[in-house]
Specification:
Elements: E1 4-5, E2 13-15, E3 22-24, E4 35-36, E5 50-52, H1 57-60, E6 73-75, E7 79-81, E8 88-92, E9 95-98, E10 103-104, E11 117-119, E12 125-129, E13 134-135, E14 148-151, E15 157-161, E16 166-167, E17 191-192, E18 198-199, E19 211-214, E20 220-224, E21 229-230
Antiparallel strand pairs: 1-10, 2-3, 4-9, 5-6, 7-8, 8-9, 11-12, 12-13, 14-15, 14-19, 15-16, 17-18, 19-20, 20-21
Length: about 230
C-alpha cells in the first residue's frame, strides 16, 4: 500500500470589507500555492526572524528514526524542500509556508524495508535501501565500507577505503571498473572481484576471492569451503 504524507494545514481567515464578517479561504489544491504551517498546539512555526519544524506533525513523521538529529531551522526568506521530501516551502515572517501536494512514497522492495526516514544534519531526509535496508548516506557523507580485508602480495593486509570502498595494496595501480551492477538470484548485490568481475553465489564453482576478514581475536582469515565463507577461530 502506498503511504501518503500531507503537510499540516493552517486555516487562513480574512475579513470581508463590505459586511465586516469573517470568511474562510478554501484550501488550495495542487496548484503550487503555499499555506502556513503551524505547530501541534496551533502556534506559529516562525518568530519573524527564523522558522523551525519543532513540535509539528510533519516533523513527527520522521523524528522516530533519528531522535538525536537537530530540528531543521531556516532564516527568514529561505526557500527549501519540506521534510516530507516533495513539497516546496518558504520561511516567512509568520512561519513556514508550504505547498500541499500529496507525496507518494516509493513502494518497498520485495524483501520489505520499512518506510521510515532519517533526518540528515542539513534538514533533508533519506529512506532505507539495499539488501540490508540501511539508510542511504546523507548529502556529503561517504559510504560505510565493510570490515573485510585483503591479503596483499607483500603479506600485509589492507581494508576497504575511498568513496568506492576498494582495496588498495602498496604499489597497486588503481583499476577503473565500469559502473555497472548485478543483482543475484537471492536478491543480494554481486561482489566485485579483483578483475572487475561481478560474482554471485549461483556462479559456483568459482575460486574464492583473495580477500580476508579480521576476527575478534585480531587474526585474519581467508575464505574457505564450498561457499567461500570466513571462519574465525572459536
Amino acid at each position: 500500500m502506498r503511504s501518503i504524507i500531507l503537510s499540516s494545514v493552517a486555516l487562513v481567515s480574512v475579513v470581508v470589507a463590505c459586511g465586516g464578517s469573517e470568511a474562510s479561504i478554501p484550501s488550495p489544491g495542487t496548484n503550487g500555492e503555499q499555506q502556513l504551517q503551524t505547530r501541534k498546539d496551533g502556534t506559529a512555526t516562525g518568530d519573524g526572524a527564523s522558522c523551525s519544524w519543532a513540535n509539528t506533525t510533519t516533523y513527527d513523521l520522521v523524528a522516530p528514526s533519528a531522535p538525536d538529529a537537530p530540528v531543521p531551522t531556516y532564516k527568514l526568506g529561505d526557500e527549501f524542500k519540506s521534510i516530507d521530501g516533495c513539497n516546496d516551502c518558504t520561511c516567512s515572517d509568520k512561519g513556514i509556508m508550504c505547498t500541499l501536494r500529496a507525496c507518494e512514497q516509493p513502494q518497498p522492495p520485495e524483501h520489505g524495508c520499512t518506510m521510515d526516514a532519517k533526518v540528515c544534519p542539513d534538514g533533508s531526509s533519506v529512506g532505507r535501501q539495499g539488501p540490508k535496508c540501511e539508510f542511504a548516506p546523507c548529502p556529503g557523507e561517504g559510504p560505510i565500507c565493510t570490515a573485510d580485508a585483503k591479503k596483499c602480495p607483500d603479506g600485509s593486509y589492507v581494508g576497504r577505503s575511498g568513496p568506492k570502498c576498494e582495496f588498495a595494496c602498496p604499489g597497486d595501480e588503481p583499476i577503473a571498473c565500469p559502473a555497472i551492477a548485478r543483482t543475484c538470484a537471492d536478491g543480494s548485490n554481486a561482489k566485485l572481484g579483483p578483475k572487475c568481475e561481478l560474482i554471485c553465489p549461483e556462479d559456483r564453482p568459482v575460486p574464492c576471492t583473495d580477500d580476508a576478514k579480521q576476527c575478534p581475536d585480531g587474526t585474519y582469515v581467508g575464505r574457505t569451503g564450498p561457499k567461500c565463507e570466513f571462519v574465525c577461530p572459536k
